[in-house]
Amino acid sequence: MAEPSFTIEDFSHARGGLPLLVRARDPQVDLLDAFADVEPLVHDWLPRCAGILFRGFALGPAADSVERFRAFAAAFGHPLLSYEFGSTPRTNVTSGVYTSTEYPADQHIPLHNEQAYTRDWPMRIWFCCVQAAPVGGETPIADSRAIHRRIPADIRERFERRGLMYVRNYGNGLDVPWQKVFNTEDRATVEAYCRDHRILCDWKDDGELRTRQICQATARHPVTGEPVWFNQAHLFHVSNLPEEVRTALLDILDEEDLPRNVYHADGGPIDPADLAAIRAVLADETVLFPWETGDVMMLDNMLAAHARTPFSGPRKVVVAMAEPHSAD
């Protein structure tokens, strides 16, 4: 039997082998050409380790690397997803491939599972480091099963029992316009999408849109059956904003008009102390490693959360998603 085109390694500092490091034996080995070797490895290991980092593989000429990445992600057999009902600014690079969140380089993006603020999300997500930043710009990750285990039991029970309600106000120069979030200029199309996805929507007097959606705090993985912490309350809550930004916004807006906020599903406030405890667990479970140009990371989006650290200098990381799953 031919020797595989890669070696399997653990990052010595990583918890539970996250991410599993799959390194090319030869830098001339193309990741897409190695797919026949890679696919069974992913099938066996991804449910266990939650994330796999492919390093040292070629992705063809630089001009073709994004297309080769797209083809690699699509080769797993599920059509790549468009970025629907997004919460952050992104740019479509090619069919099914987007830039990572286009927040300013000095901002930290907390750990989150992609689209855990909705009832529909991708099961798989891929990242490709086209250009690693000279300073910072890592994509930290964490095991959502471990986070679930470590959230204090009283907080976990309270979040599960009371659920979450995400409130979003679009546009007005403060958040992504609804036209970009829903990829349409037509109000009727927005209303139909919201009906289909159990989202309450209201058109405000200024012509902008407000949505409310009741969502899960935790979930069970449909394949492994394991419970995971699966929400973005710590990210959407007003307490996530820097104090000066929060104060400035509340000076000019009623709380219900904040660009985004989150409550318990019954409309009651979330205790900031609960969110502080949750953030402490997330910080303690974070796995951090530097990108290398050409890296491709594949995550099970329910088993692994991801983030972004501040950076300086040029950085380009692109993202693809597939295999939609619904809480309903």
Automatic annotation (TrEMBL):
Residue intervals of the TauD/TfdA-like domain: 30-320
Cofactor requirement: Fe(2+)
Keywords carried by this UniProt record: Antibiotic biosynthesis, Oxidoreductase
InterPro entries linked to this entry: AlphaKG_dependent_hydroxylases, TauD-like_sf, TauD/TfdA-like
Entry's Gene Ontology BP terms: antibiotic biosynthetic process
One Pfam family in the UniProt entry: TauD
SUPFAM superfamilies per the UniProt record, alphabetical: Clavaminate synthase-like
A GO MF label: 2-oxoglutarate-dependent dioxygenase activity
Protein name as annotated: TauD/TfdA-like domain-containing protein
The organism of origin for this protein: Azospirillum palustre
Upper taxonomic lineage: Bacteria, Pseudomonadati, Pseudomonadota, Alphaproteobacteria, Rhodospirillales
